[in-house]
Amino acid sequence: MDLVLPCLDEAEALPWVLERVPPGWRALVVDNGSTDGSDRIAREFGATVVREKRRGFGAACHAGLTAATADIVCFCDCDASLHPAELVPFVREIRAGEADLVLGRRRPKARGAWPAHARAGNLALARLLRRRTGLRLHDLGPLRAARRTDLLALGLTDRRSGYPLQMVVRAADAGWKVTEHDVPYLPRSGASKVTGTWRGTFQAVRDMSRVLREVPERTGVAS
Ligand SMILES: Nc1nc2c(ncn2[C@@H]2O[C@H](COP(=O)(O)OP(=O)(O)OP(=O)(O)O)[C@@H](O)[C@H]2O)c(=O)[nH]1
Ligand SMILES: [Mg+2]
């Protein structure tokens, strides 16, 4: 199993995350130009470090997917907000052929884990997603598992905050079975880059709106 961990200045969170990677899994920490020694810490804790110079959550995730070699690839944030072992049953579900993409629905376990505006934004997005794809999801969380070659075949192009949404939209368009399971959401370690800042929130809304405006690709259908 390859576990992709996008990482931008997560020195504080990395030990917690890497100590919880399930045994036998390879942790691919994608260093997105950290200046706090994240790459050194990642190596110390046994991870493989992949470098991605281009900034952006999607750029980091995609570099990890490209570097991965395992049949199934998992994704988890590197900010200690999600326990990597929550992915174990996700992988089992993919292996059993019961789903093509499994997503974690974040359930905050402490006050402050998920600011109100971020929750509201995410819920609104889930509704738009439902209208666009018919999928009844409640969250577009970063904890995910899918088969590597299937993911690559989706040809994802977003390299910023729209990446997780584009993955779900294109998976739905391709007829994948997408499932969702509750996962505990903990307050992140270190500073938030997206929902804790105006700039991050604004960019996320813009990137996601762009993805939702994309016209579905009609693969195999003559137009
Ligand atoms: N935002 C952002 N995150 C990156 C980037 N490159 C890597 N990451 C990592 O992606 C993960 C998610 O980023 P966060 O800043 O936690 O963003 P988020 O979880 O969407 O939102 P928050 O609620 O603000 O935590 C973290 O592990 C980051 O270190 C980047 O360019 N931008
Ligand atoms: Mg986070």
UniProtKB/TrEMBL annotation:
Domain of life: Bacteria
CDD domains: DPM_DPG-synthase_like
Annotated InterPro entries: Glyco_trans_2-like, Glycosyltransferase_2, Nucleotide-diphossugar_trans
UniProt domain Glycosyltransferase 2-like: residue ranges: 4-120
Pfam families, sorted: Glycos_transf_2
Similarity comment text for this entry: Belongs to the glycosyltransferase 2 family.
Protein name (record): Glycosyltransferase family 2 protein
Organism: Streptomyces hirsutus
